[in-house]
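Lab notebook, bench 4. Continuing the backlog of folding jobs that were queued last week. Each job is logged with the same field layout so the records can be merged later without manual cleanup. Today's entry covers Nlr family card domain protein, a 699-residue chain. Filled in by technician R.K.

JOB TYPE: sequence-to-structure
TARGET: Nlr family card domain protein
LENGTH: 699
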Amino acid sequence: MDLGRSFFTGSRITRLVPCTNSEGRLCHIFREIFLWNKYFWPVGLELRELSPRSLSLVERNEAYVGAHADQDMPRQMRVVAKLLHHLLTNHHCVTSAAIVTSIFREHHQLICDALSKSLGLQKLKLYAVRTATQSPQNTAPALPHLRHLRELELQNIPFKRTFVEGFSEFLTSTRLLTTLTVTHQYLECEEYAVSFLQGLMRNQTITTLSFDITLLGQNPFCGLFGMRVPPRSAVVFADYLRTNKTLCTLVVRGGYLNHFHVVSRPILEALIINDTLNKLILTSLRLEEVDIELITRLFSHNRILTCFNMIGCDCSGISSRASSKLVAITENKTLQEMTLSLPFIDAMESRSLFSTLASTQSLNKVAVNYFSDFDVAEICRAVQETGARDRFLVGKYYVLEDTVDQLTECKELTSVAVHSSFFSGLEPLLTTLSLLSLCSHVTSLRLEVWSNEFRGRVSSLIAQCIKGMTALRKLELSIVDAEMRDGFNEARRELAQALSVNKSIRKLSVEGPCFGETEIETLADTLHSSRTLCELSFFPSDHRCVISLMRNLSMNISSNYTLLDMQLDKPWRLGVDWFMVSDVIRRNCSLVTRAAHFVMGTRNRHCAAAAELVHSNPGLVEKVQELASVDESEAASRIQKSLESFSELDEFMRLAGVVKHGVTCQSRGDGRKQLADIRRNGWSCIRKYIKMGDIWDEQ
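JOB STATUS: finished
OUTPUT FIELD FOLLOWS
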């Protein structure tokens, strides 16, 4: 098969070989990911290792490098379609894929054939580009052939009659699908939504369902205002919840129809008698008092629910009287975790509510992600008075002119935002910046100032904050209207220097300020040498800064084993430099994944080698926390113990695959020492020069 040359350097894949994955040996594709991604990147895709020994084809919209303007794009699409077909039909190691149905229109049959003949696909995302001039063709007929599929996500997929019919048939017939996510779907009429939901009712395997609320509306553009009777789709969905015996997690997101109350009553009333759902998440919805009443009824009647989260919900229309209804939470003895948005309660009500929550013994974690910033002192005091501070997490606090002095007093405020536009002049801003340096409890900080303020004392104090806040893990810095000319030279030098000094920041976002070449070199050196900075977002007002940073980074970024994510302004303009940097990020993410699974008990050489390389990466600690559901100190302890588990000679050689049991040597006549004779101290010296990654696969 002639695949032609790749987009970037002209290198090529010379032959396509079936999967060589086997016990103790990775498929040859793992060594060639760099080359394969040179083909996939022009169409916004990338091969990654999201779990050990398994490959995933993920979407990378920011990877698109401008091939859309190239006359060779049709050939690129044809080659990528062939490569995708080969991966899915010949490689057991490819277990996850994201497929852009709209850009593969000309190769629809080849993609459907690849899906139908897939050897190991367990997770699939089908999505269409919003700006596609033509609707994507129907891929539903291929779904019933995906025998191993466990997770399916549909995004921007039009719910037309033929698709809904095929999809409903798949939902009825599948025996392995456990997770279904449907987002930004386009409904031609409510009948198709009802047809989809009826197919869902016949499904007996799904345990996690996530969807946009638009799925329950008649028309995504007309709204639900004025409707007194819930649409038929909401009634059918309520019937599904009432009778379903498999669903454990339900996520409902806001969309065009962000008013939840029109469809909430039948849904929440159904959940009251549902005896399987244990996790309910409401995201980006506009809630009203009727919704709070129904939610509290759910708390008082449901005996299965263990987790309830309200994330990014608009509760501005709810009066303070609604807080009294939340006492129903105490009647629930199964709820263990909850996230609340509470802008509608005042200081006195917060004390009563938090006391009530603290008395609920089953609740292990309560996060208040939105509250009245004017009442911050009373809210923190209410948390302190519960005697259960470790169970409460207070969300981001926006510093106001009247509450500046609470920064140092309220230790519960670990996430702080400072916007200069909230102040009447420079003095409150200067006071706030001076106090921040004393806040050892603040781990997340957002600073937003106007460009005409970012000079003199303000820029110096910001630099001092960055240098002095040794507990800071996340920093977001935004300079608004940042046309930074020569008058800002000193300010940007101070900023770049401060960022190079701080050794605690793990996630950094810089928006607005333009850096000169000297500052860009300082920032690049910081990224090269940092052992803590895992994520960077860089959006200067002048794109030339991004180009310069990529040019500096790409030269020797391969020595960095810390960087795990990077978001950039106009990445499609950055070409091969961005590709080189992103490939290192992909490698680092793969190593962290392998290392985390080694800590969790996956005992193989490749995972052990990764643990040696990235054991100090903060991202590894977070990954272990996620997998093991433990705190940071416990995760760090487990990482250390996992490294010690192969510190001895026999353990090292067994894990490396050199021996099956232990190191033994035939005796020598000359009496010279052999490997088995080396004592612990001697082996410790040797281990300084030999790593698990030095042991090669058998050829």
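OBSERVATION: The mean pLDDT is 87.
SIGNED: R.K.
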